[in-house]
């Protein structure tokens, strides 16, 4: 696991926590969808950068 993949996975998990918080605060759905797309992209990019796939 290198530093870039770790950072991407941590940022993705942080954004997932933000999604949970925004849902509890009943923020607009468009903002939640945008945040969830960003979280999914960070998590997928972090997992794809792992050396496990080589």
UniProtKB/TrEMBL annotation:
Membrane-spanning ranges: 6-23, 30-48
Keywords of this entry: Membrane, Transmembrane, Transmembrane helix
Top-level taxon of the source organism: Bacteria
UniProt name for this protein: Amidotransferase
Species of origin: Streptomyces plumbiresistens
